Amino acid sequence: MNNKNVILVGAPMDAGKRRQGCRMGPDAYRVAGLEQALTDLGHRVSDIGDVSPDKTDVADHAHLFALPECIGWTNALCRVAQEAAPMGLPIFMGGDHALSMGTVAGMAAHAQKIDRPLFVLWLDAHSDFHTPSSTDSGNLHGTPVAYFTGQSGFDAFPPLPAPVPTDRVGMIGLRSVDPAERARLEQDQAMLVDMRGIDEHGIKTPLMAFLDGVRAANGILHVSLDVDFLDPSIAPAVGTTVPGGATEREAHLAMELLHESGLVCSLDLVELNPFLDERGRTAKLMVDLAASLLGRRIFDRPTRSF
Fold first, then answer.
1. Could you tell me if residue 189 is left (phi over 0), alpha (psi between -120 and 50 degrees) or otherwise beta?
2. Structural domains of the chain ordered from first start
3. Which residues of 36-60 are buried (b: 16+ CB within 10 A; e: fewer)?
4. Which residue numbers are catalytic?
5. Are strands 44-50 and 89-94 parallel, antiparallel or unpaired?
6. What is the reported pTM?
7. Cβ(68)–Cβ(27) under 8 Å?
8. 2 versus 166: which is more confidently predicted?
9. Residue 264 pairs with which residues in a beta bridge?
10. Per-residue pLDDT tens digits for 52-66
11. Number of helices (H) and strands (E), helices first, in the chain?
12. CA-to-CA distance for 61 and 64, rounded, in angstroms?
C-alpha cells in the first residue's frame, strides 16, 4: 500500500447558508476518529487545526448572506491549500460547501505549479453552479462550482489563480438541480450523472469513465464529498436533505475505486451538521468513507452498533 502524508485541515465555515451548525463539523470528524482511522491504515497523519477566515473590507450585501465572511474564508482556504498540497494529501474537514471556493482554487493553483491539470469530482445532490446574481436564496454554498470554473459575477471575490475548466468537472449523485444550472453545465460539457443514471448503469461506469479522462490528461483529482450525496436515511446530519441519494455500498464502492485510481490529491468533507445527527452516525459514516478512499476495504471495516 502506498502510504501518504495526510494533512487534516479544519474549516469550520458556517457562512455559506443561513442554517447554522456546520461549524461543528471539524470537531465531529475528530471525535469520530478520522485521524486514528487513517493512521491505522499506515498513513502519516497530522492535524494542523482549524483555519480562520481572513479579515476583509468587503461590505455586507443586501441579498448575499455573509458575503464578507465567505470572501475571507475563500482567501484563507486558498492559501492553506497551496501550503498543504506540496506536503501531502490535504483533507478539508468542513464546514459548508462554500468552503470549496477556497480549497479548489488553492488546489488548482498547486496543480498549475506542478504543471498538471486539476480535475474535480463533485459528489453532491446539487450542482452548486449558481452565481451571486442567479441565486434566489442568497446562500453562497450554492455557488462554488460557478466560482472555481471562472463564471462571471464573482467580482467581489479574489481573482482565481487558475480556473478549472468546466469540462474537467464530474458530478455524480445529482437530484436537485435548477434547469438553468443544468443547461449551462451541459453546454460547457461537465459530466453530469444523476441518480437515475446510477440506477440504470451503476456508479462504477460513469466514475471509471471520468477517471480515465483524468488519467489520459495526466491530471490530479480533487474530490468534494457532500453529506447530501448520501441518502438521508443513512446520513441525516445535513440541512439540505434530498431523498433518493447514494446507498452506503454505492458510496464505499466509489471511494474504493477512487483509491485504486491513485489520482486523488485532496478531499473536501462538507455539510456535516452534527446538531442534526443521530448519535454521530453520519460523522462515523463519513469517516468510514474517507478511510475507504485512503485504502480500507469494506470487509476490513469493523461492525459497530450505534
1. left
2. 5-300 (3.40.800.10)
3. ebbeebebebebeeebebbebeeee
4. 97, 124, 126, 128, 141, 226, 228, 271
5. unpaired
6. 0.95
7. no
8. 166
9. 221
10. 999 998 888 878 988
11. 10, 8
12. 5
Half-sphere exposure of 202 (CA within 13 A, CB side): 9
List CB contacts of 40: < 8 A, sequence separation 6 or more.
Answer: none
153 exposure class (CB count in 10 Å sphere: 0-12, 13-18, 19+): middle
Distance of CA 212 to the CA centre of its chain: 20
Could you give the angle at the alpha carbon of 71 between the alpha carbons of 65 and 77, nearest 5°? 125
What's the alpha-carbon Rg for the chain, to the nearest Å?
17
Tell me, what DSSP letter sits at residue 25? Answer: H
What is the 3-state secondary structure of 220-244?
A: EEEEEEEHHHECCCCCCCCCCCCCC
Angle, helices 100-113 vs 67-84, to 10°: value is: 30
Q: What is the secondary structure of 35-95 as a DSSP string?
A: HHHHHHTT-EEEEEEE--PPP--PPP-SSSTTHHHHHHHHHHHHHHHHHHGGGSEEEEEES
- Whether the per-residue pLDDT at 301 is higher than 80: the answer is no
